[in-house]
Amino acid sequence: MQRPLMERIARALCTHDGNPPNATMNGKPLWCDYLPEAQVVLLAIREPNDDMVDAGIGTGVERPVRLDISPRSAWEAMIDAALDGR
Q: Element (H or E) spanning 40, and its range?
């Protein structure tokens, strides 16, 4: 089973800060301390910009609108557009 997105983001932030993946503090996983930051990340990307929307529905100069794109592919394309700085 895949972990919830908030947990995956919190774990990534924790590891990015140089902490071991399974670090604990006072008996709880250290990544739990990063949940507020994970929420901020998700809130920041909640509303896509126009380039992300275009990527998600498969539009662009080089390609027409695709109506058969899966939600997973649309999400990945939208996040890729954001990572590319669009």
A: helix 35-45
